[in-house]
Amino acid sequence: MDNLLHAFALALRNIKRAPLPYLLTVLILSLGLGMFFSNATLYYWLNHDPLPQKSHSLFYPQINSVLQPCDSCTEPMRVLSYQDVQKLSSSGIPSAQAAMFQSAGYARLPGNSDVSPTPVRLRVTQRDFFTLFDVPFLHGERWADDTARRELILSKASAERFFGRSNVVGETLRLGNELFTISGVLQDWEMLPRLYDVANGLNSARSADIYLPWETAFDLGIKSNTTTMSRDERDYSDNFAVNGREGQFYQAQFWVQLDSPQQVTAYQQFMQQLVHSEKEAGRHPRPEANRLTNILDITEHFNARNRQLDAFALVSLLFLLVCLFNASHLSLNRYLASQYEFGLRRALGCSRSQLQQLILADVAVSAALALFLSLAVAAAAMSLIASLLPATRNLTSWNPLMVLTMAGTALIACYLVTLYPALRASFGSLNRQLK
Amino acid sequence: MSLTLLFKSLLQRKVITALLLVQLTLTLALLSNSVLLSSQAYQLSNQPTGLQLDTTLAIELKPTDENLIVHPALGDLIQRQLAALRQIGGVRHAAFSNQTPLLFGGMNGNVYVEGKQDTTNIEMVPYNFAEAELFDTLQMTLLHGRWLSAEDKNTDNVVITDKLAKQLFSDSHLAIGQQTNGGNIVGVVADMMYQRFASDQYFGLFFNRDLNRADYGYRLLLQVEPQAVAAVRQQIYDSLRQVEPEIDIQQVVSLRQLHRDYFEQERGLAILLSVLSGLMLVVAMISAYSHALFHGVQQQNEIGVKRALGASKQRILVEVLSESWLTTGIGAALGLLASYLLQQQLATVISLPALPLWLPLCGALTLLLCVTIATWYPAAIATRVSPATATKAL
Amino acid sequence: MITLTNLSKIFRTELIETHALRDVNLQVNEGEFAALTGPSGSGKSTLLNILGTLENFDEGDYLLDGKSVKGLSDAALSRLRNEKIGFIFQSFNLIKDFSIFDNIELPLRYRGLKASDRKQRIEQALELVGLHARRDYLPGQLSGGQQQRVAIARAIAGEPRILLADEPTGNLDSLMARQVMELLEQINQRGCTILMVTHDPEQARRAGRHIQIVDGQLHDSTLYQPLAAVQGA
């Protein structure tokens, strides 16, 4: 303990001895680490697995179901039609399955018709949505089945916004011109990246305020406010309950949970059989192009990676390298300047391992300082990035594990930077330095 | 000091020199590529738009009452809103459309010449609702044929942009009277920048129809006197609310703002990389500074002896500087190579033009300048050593 | 105490080999005060460095206290230096921003002594060199002679068996040099073996034994002088 304190006291004294070179070293290191951390944070949130316990079992099926013949069209649509969903839902193989799309609407309390309504983010979906993505309920529960029903599930924040409290199960809310009963309230829930909707480039958008049953949305003519495509001449602004269900109106994402490799194979076979029987019935004129994509591959599949961030990641990694080289250059200078003192200590009987302890203390102090500074640099860099690339705005938080990792990185970086100089100083021949 | 001596002195400090070189190399590579990206972003944002960016305002709105979202109530509401907006002083023209130029998303469809789908099909062309006044509101220029009038309402007649016409018919005046899947072409207007992610950003197709449903809201566009822009913007909300309170005005923006957001990604990356390049130059300067300072102190005796032997201060200064020039020079040569390597790597991730030679060369000069500035002070200190004190210590 | 047998040290560069020491045989007994003289470049410092285990040798053997130092690990050598050997340098080699007390404490720390033991030893050493009142000064606040006395205090605080001094008075004026010599003699009389490199013939005479080194070879004028005579000097 005494030795440890001594080592730290020496480390601090070393700083006092030559504060400018020391600060420059730490500053350079912090700049490199800070830029790297800011980028790593965005990268982490964009690429980490939001559901590590079940991501391997979540899949996005697609079939090339468009009715106009086209032999060169070998990629299925990114979004699905009501008919696609109906067909792909009929297998009975997945442990859970849900179709969904994002929409927007206006909600208000039933009595307050003179107050202007509040814009809300909607997710139109089926009951298994909450099972698929492990969405936790605070009050109430998910819908009893997938039939049309005037029941809404609210996020906790929107329950509190409309009613001032969270337990609002059984209350009514007006969405558009329709009245709905609230059947459940979710706990605070965000899934980052929001992999279930990357087809629309919404992987870092916020979760919905209100969840609305799938069939009800078709009854009421509520459509997706993101990608919609129609491939026939129907008028989808008219009688959507029929046209939307029967026509080639593509707007939905569809997710299935297949827990075992056997289930995956079974579902792939089901898709093949489905397409064959559709072909026989003349409803699948395009080449067979079945896709069953795992949720962890979906970003790549939809080519929805943020290339700008990729490029910046590459560059900030290089910058970190430059800073590491630079800092080790500076710390080599610093250590060479005090090489004479190392020699003296050795002459007085300090063993190499004791010397290494001193150096480690020095490294620890530098790392602490560098961590502190680099977090500041990273925070500044992230706010700059968020203001320049607004899509990254929700990706800038740190959890304790990340801070711990960053601390570890700072420590390793400081050690790397000090390693060669320290070795050189402590293993250098002793005879030259003392007279 | 002779070049061979300089090289020898560098070789003696292999590790430090190697560190310095790696760092100079990477700095130059990053510097030239960031400038490349910035210039690309600059070029993109300086393409002609064919639009009056500062005096055109776009209002994005949606009725909150579902009765108002459907024709004919919707059409009536739009006409009342436009009438009210025209009353605001400074508003020259007002028109409705389903989408706004320069804004991502909206209604896109394929376009082909009737009967020649195989050879002329274009995947994504913005389909724009357009009434007579949209022409003046967007300050369009008519190239051939005529613009749409009230008589064209709910007919098959369409107007297309010059670039789309050229793509379909090779020469735009040939387009008039031609039948496409989108309708019968009656006019061709000059190019406007519409949708970035359409097949081409200058493609556009205009038709005059009633909007049946406003599930996605609609846009009101205004052409405003230049000096009245701010005042008009302030009055828009009140004016629209007086017409009908059951609407959600999502945003009021000038096309200038939309144009800024249009290249947001490129601009953002370019700024980020420029910041990073700046930091790199600072780091290079710090490095050069401390390198010179340290070796200046280390070589004090040597410098003292040289001074005693008759070297002038200037000469010593040049000697110290020329060492950092030599390292920077070698670093720059390596950096030139690295610039091209990094460009290749970046080009696999994002779209990036080829790197012209002058760019890394200019970068190398900048680097040299920065290093010289940073070396100057420590070098000057080193020359200040009095020969007497320096030699005494020997 | 110290036995060197056929010890050689060769410096090699790409072009030439230099025999810094050639077949050196030397016996230094416990309690001796030996002066080592020789022209510059003769190998004095190399010999002293080897004796202090700061430098390796190429051939022969070096027995310290009857045990060979050959092949000892770095940790063992460090321990040996720390416990048995004290160094005094021409340029004092005090750490500038450490107080007198902290400077003397340094080797005691490496030995792993408790704080109270360290304090006791430092105070004894300071008492001996007569600088007790200056314990909180920085080296720069002392005269050269005082600094060298601090260095001596540092060397003897660990109660080493051998003191290796490399021109300890080389940077001092004659008055201070005499004080330092008297101090060394006093320490020698307490039983500490001292080996001192010097250029000063006067000092060489005062030492009980005079070893001359020329071109890496020893000429020992008092090699067979009995131990008692040394102690009586």
TrEMBL record, chain A:
Asked whether the UniProt record includes rRNA processing among its keywords, one would answer no
**Primary localization class, coarse:** membrane
The answer to keyword Transmembrane applying to this record is: yes
- Give the source's domain of life in one word: Bacteria
So where does this one cross the membrane? 20-46, 311-337, 358-389, 401-423
Alphabetical keyword list: Cell membrane, Membrane, Transmembrane, Transmembrane helix
Please identify the protein, giving its name as recorded: ABC transporter permease
Q: Which organism is it from?
A: Arsukibacterium indicum
Q: Which taxonomic lineage is given here?
A: Bacteria, Pseudomonadati, Pseudomonadota, Gammaproteobacteria, Chromatiales
From TrEMBL, chain B:
Q: Which UniProt keywords apply?
A: Cell membrane, Membrane, Transmembrane, Transmembrane helix
Subcellular location, principal: membrane
Membrane topology summary: Multi-pass membrane protein
Subcellular localization:
Cell membrane
Domain of life according to the entry:
Bacteria
- Keyword Ribonucleoprotein assigned: no
The transmembrane residues are 269-295, 316-337, 357-377
Would I find Cytoplasm among this entry's keywords? Answer: no
Pinpoint the MacB-like periplasmic core domain residues: 80-236
Occurrences of domain ABC3 transporter permease C-terminal (ranges):
275-387
Give the protein's recorded name.
Answer: FtsX-like permease family protein
From TrEMBL, chain C:
InterPro entries to which the protein is assigned, alphabetical: AAA+_ATPase, ABC_transporter-like_ATP-bd, ABC_transporter-like_CS, ABC_transpr_LolD-like, MacB-like_ATP-bd
UniProt-listed SMART domains: AAA
Q: Where is the ABC transporter domain?
A: 2-231
GO: which molecular function terms? Answer: ATP binding
Cite the entry's keywords alphabetically.
ATP-binding, Nucleotide-binding, Transport
Q: What is this protein called?
A: ABC transporter ATP-binding protein
Q: Which organism is it from?
A: Arsukibacterium indicum
> Source taxonomy lineage?
Bacteria, Pseudomonadati, Pseudomonadota, Gammaproteobacteria, Chromatiales
